[in-house]
Amino acid sequence: MKRVKQESSELKNKRLTMRRINVLFMAVVSLLILLVLRLGYLQIAQGDDYKKAVDNNENIEINESVPRGRIYDRNGKLLVDNTSKRAITYTRDRMTSRGEILDTAKKLSKYIKMDTGALTKRDKQDFYILTHKSDVDQLMKKELKLVETGEITQAAYDEALYKKLTDKYTDQLSKDELQVASIFREMSSGSQLSPQIIKNKDVSETEYALVSQNLNHLPGVNTSMDWERKYLYGKTLRTLFGKVSSKEEGLPKELVDYYLSKGYSRNDRVGQSYLEFQYENVLKGKKRKMRYITNKSGKIIDSELISEGSRGNDLILSIDIDLQKKVEDLVDKHIRNLRSLGAKDMDKVLVVLQDPNNGDVLALAGRQIDKSGNITDYHYGTFTSQYAVGSSVKGATLLTGYSNKAISVGETMVDEPLEFSGGMTKRSYFNQNGKKTINDKEALMHSSNVYMFKTALKLAGLNYSNKMTLPSDIQEAGLKLRKGLNQFGLGVKTGIDLPNEVTGQTGVLKNNPGNYLDLAIGQYDTYSPLQLSQYISTIANDGYRIQPHLVKEIRGASKTDKLGPVKESIKGKVLNRINNSQNEIDEVKEGFDMVFNKVDGTGYQSFNNTKVRSAGKTGTAEVFLDGKPQVNSTYIGYAPANNPKLSFSIIYTNQPVPPPWLPGGDLGKDIINEYFNSKK
Hints:
25 helices; alpha+beta; seven-stranded mixed sheet
């Protein structure tokens, strides 16, 4: 056989080497391709994100306390302003150590005096640990060894330290040390690159000047001007304006995530309630934007102003402050008068004044009265509280009957005691035992319960007969009646531009026909004073339910005392038009006129001689206070009767059961006279 020629070892090594080189080359090429693809992905797909990250790292919104927008009344009278006050601030960079902060705090304590009352036990413990290291090491000698040997964790060491560090040790801190601790506490609580207010209350001219003169020796410290809200009319409308958080409070705990998502800092001051909260986006100022330049160690070496900050925009309210003050005075006057006449348990009086044609709220006045007769503000109760309002709703009941073809305009019925099977009897107050034929307008004038009960029965497809059996299921009829009342704003939110508005309380209507009848006379569901005002305004303007509003305009911030340019004008939004003809509305309006201007009208005694002819309705709802029967007295109306410019609602809670009838309507009369006297 022929022997196969064997390959030399040199050739084998050469071939193996080439194979390895090829593999290495392919690996290098693959890595280069991956690198190019990765660079392309970073530059093209994620380039904008990384650019934003760099911008966010360099462009910092300075957390200065920018003044909020002002609040004016409808006539341009300034209600809420900002007053300047001196402030000492501190800004730490990203690399500032606790030791450096402490050194600065010690220097600053030579120039300012701090209130040490805000220091907590933990604040004192932390400061003691930082400034008395040798004493702490001696106190924790045993635990230190256990940490070093790994027998306990650092967390366990810290827990033991705070337990051992009792008042015995922290009480050793001198007054000077407590001063430093107070400054250190404020300096440490701020975010990086964001000015933190160290002191802004009672900063004296001397303190301000000394700090300003020594800024070169106080790294991060600066002097500036802070602000606080100033209320030019004292307590008038104070609760309705709402509260602004302090620098100590910062963002409200329950809204931290919401505000952080909108770019706020944790120690920003924001509106916490009512107008300040509702219009936070308008009233908040625009913070200064700075670009910080740092060295490799993170120290700030330069800064550049990107955009100047400015105070917030201004609100022009629909409120007439002069009218508001007069209404408050009148409410207080009538509270004193009614208490002197026997209304000792009356605990609330609530008043709403509107322009019925555009939704402008002209005045909101609420008062609470304690057992001793002390009066406090309860303005927000006009839209956050709800009450049984009685016969005031009867105009809406009639219009609901008309729209459902249950009754017709001018229809007459016999007012008489109604007896039902099972022994239930219902009657009108003005006609306890007899029979009296009345029409719809007279039913309003006399405040006939029976006319409304019979209307409700017709709405359910029934005609009254003596000792009749009421249907067990009145759900469908109850839905019709409620929908009718809802058209006027009764039992639904009015839509006012304030938080926490109530809807009203609506009970179940299914197998309780007695409650269904009571609903027709305002004795079952509950409504807010603002809902009553929207209801009477809807009738006054011939059927348009308009959304009430407290803010009339938003204006840009002006650098002078003059009002800035209009940025937004807020006009009343029509929410719905009631399902009634003009003839039907006019019928109810004539009945309301009779209530105030006919001798037999329930409102005649108070309203027959107002400055301009007025119209409206009264109501009395039976309630209980601590098991004792009481009544809520209500008055709604508008003026002039033939061309309404003003509408109002008044609720007195927990008045004595009549008779005698207390002259609660005199407050409405005085308000009408005051309003039209001032207009003249």
